Amino acid sequence: MRKLLASALALVVIAGLCGYGFWTLQRPEGHYLSDLRIELALNQGVPGEHGNLLGIEPLLYPGDYQNLSRLHRKLSAYLQQARDQGLVNARTVVVLPEHIGTWLWARGEKNELYQVTRHREAWQWLELSNPVRYGLAMLSASGDDRRTDAHLRMKATQMAADYQQLFSGLAREFGVTLVAGSIVLPAPYVKDGMLRTGNGPLFNSSLVFAGDGRVLGQPQYQQYPDSETRRYVHDGRQQPLQVLHTPAGRLGVLVGSDSWYPANYKQLASAQMIANPAFLSGKHSWQSPWRGNRHQAAAAALPLRRGEVSEQAAWQQLTQQASDGAASMSVFLRGQFWEQAGDGQGYASQAGTLWAGSASQGARLLNLWL
Questions:
Q1: Which one of 163, 166, 255, 330 is at 20 to 30 Å from 353 when CA atoms are compared?
Q2: How far is residue 20 from each of residues 130, 155, 280, 340, measured CA to CA in Å?
C-alpha cells in the first residue's frame, strides 16, 4: 500500500512539474493599442548643410516591449513624423533617452507581466516564468541588489541582440546617425560589428549606429551611475569617453547624470556635439527638489547642493555650464512602467544658450539645427 501511495505521489509531482514546465513556455499575446502621436516641442535654428540634433522623447509602457515589432512600430512612427516635417536627413543625429534598451528585459514574457500594476509583481511573473534561467543568474549575480542584477543578467544575450536589431534597423531605415539611448548589460563590448555581453558586472551603456546600421565605436559606459541604479550598475570610468565621427561632425555621448560633471566634457573637448540620453523617475519630479548624487565623490565638487534648486534647474544649469559651447541635446524617457513614471523635459544648448521645449504630456520631438 505504501509503495502504491508513493508511486501515485511521484506521478502527481512529475505531472505537476511537467505542467509547470509547459506553462513556462507559453507566451500568448494580448490585444494592443498604441498612441503614435508626437508633438514638436522645440525647433531651434534654421535648416542648413551642417545637419541637426533630433531628440525623441517617446511615450512608452510595458506593453510596448512585449515584442520588437510593437516597439519598432512606435519609434518608426515618431521618426516618420519627424521626416514628414523636414527634420530628417543624412546629417541628422537622433538622440533617444536613457534606459530605452534596458526595458527589453520584459520582451517576450507572459501577458500577466504587462497587466499587473506593481513593478514587484512584474518581477515575480518574470521569475515564475523563467525559473531555471533566474536561478542560474542568481548564482552569478553581484552588487548590492542581486535580484535586479539577476533579472538583467538572465535576459542579457536576448536584450543585446534585440537592442542591435531594433536600433541598427531604425538607423538604416531612416539613414540617420542614431544614439540608441542606453541599455544595462554585463560587461558589453562590440566584436566583429556585433554587440556582445561578457561575464563581468553590469554597466549602463549606449551604442551609436551609423546611417547604414553599423556600430560606431564601442559601448559608451556611464561614468557615474546615479543613486537609483548604483546598487547594481558599476561605474565605467575604466573605459574612456569616445569621440565619434559622424556626417554632422564629431559626437560625444554622456549617459544620464554624466552630463553634470565638467571632467567628462574635458575628455570630449574635441566633440562638436554632445548627446545626453537621460532618465528621471517619479511623477512630477521635474519640479521637485534636486536629488543630486551623494554616493558619488565627484558630486561634492559641483556648484549646486541637493535640495537647493529643482531637478529642472539643476539639470539645465549643470549641463549648460559644463558643455563649454558644444551643441548638446538632452532627452528623457517618458511614460509609465508599472508604478514608476518617467519625467523630465528635454532641452538643447548651443554657444552658451539653452532652449527648453514646450511642456507636453505626450511624446515629444526636439530639434536643433547645427
A1: 255
A2: 11, 20, 38, 30
Tell whether 325 is covered by a domain.
yes
> Domain of 319?
37-369
pLDDT at 23: 39
Q: Domain with 273 in it: what CATH number?
A: 3.60.110.10
Mean pLDDT for the stretch of residues 239-267:
96
pLDDT bucket at 47, cuts 50 / 70 / 90: very high
pLDDT at 10 over 50: no
Residue 15 lies in a domain: no
Distances (CA, A) of 227 to 27, 34, 157, 211, 291: 35, 32, 26, 34, 9
* Mean pLDDT to the nearest integer, 201-219: 98
| Count of domains observed in the chain | 1
